[in-house]
Amino acid sequence: MRRLLLLALVLGWAVCAFAGPVEFKFVGWNDGQWQNGYPYAIQPLGDSSGSILFVMCDDYFHGGEPGDIWDANITQLGSDNISLTRFNKVVAGPTALTPLMLYDEAGWILLQTLVEPRDQYQAMNYAVWYIFDPSQTPCNTACQFWLAQAQEAAAMHFPNTDFNRVYVITPVNQYDPNPDGVQEFLALGQDNGLLQGGPNDTVPEPGTLLLLGSGLLGILGRRFLH
Fold this sequence. Notes:
- The protein has about 230 residues and is α+β, with helices and mostly antiparallel strands.
- It contains three helices and six strands; from the N terminus they run ββββαααββ.
- The model is unreliable at about 1-15 and about 200-225 (pLDDT under 50).
- The protein has a six-stranded antiparallel beta barrel with strand order 1-2-3-6-5-4.
C-alpha cells in the first residue's frame, strides 16, 4: 500500500502529517471569476508564513465565496483510500466507472497542468467538473478533448502516472447537500510531500497574494451554483 505523505510548501509549511482535519480559507478565484477555473487560491490557516495553495475544484455543484473558512480532510490519491472524499459513492449506470477511477482520471488531468500551457487550464478544469457531474457541467470541444485524453490514459492504466502527487482536500462535511457549501479541491504535491512548480505566471484575486516563488504548486477551481 502506498504511503500517506505530508503535503507541504517548499518554504516550510506542513499539514500536520494529515493526522486530522486542517483549517483552510478560500482566498480568491482565477482573475476574480469562478468560471475561469484553475487555478484558484486557498490558504491553510495556523501558518504564520501566509502560504497560498493553488488548487483545482472537482465539485461543480457546491459554491462558496472568498473569505469562507472550513475544516478539511486531506487524502493522498495514491493511497487508493478515498473514504474521506466527496464522490466516493458515485452511483450511475451498469457501465459506470468506479469512484476511484473517476478520481484517477481527474488526478491525471491535474498532473497534465505541469506540462500544458496556461490556455488549456480552463478546459482542463471543466473536464474535471464534468467527470464528477456530467448532468450539470457544460463541456465544449476543448473540455471534451481533455475528457477523451483522460479516458485514453485510463484505458492504458495511466502509464508513468504518480498519483502520490495528487491530493484531495475534502470538507469534513463531505456529503454536504447545501449548494452554497464549500467545494472539494485537488492539489498537486510530490512523493516527499513538497509542492513544486505550478502556474507561477498567474496571480489570483486579490493581486496582493504572496506567491512563494516557483516552489508553490497546486490548483483550484471553484463552482458557484447560480
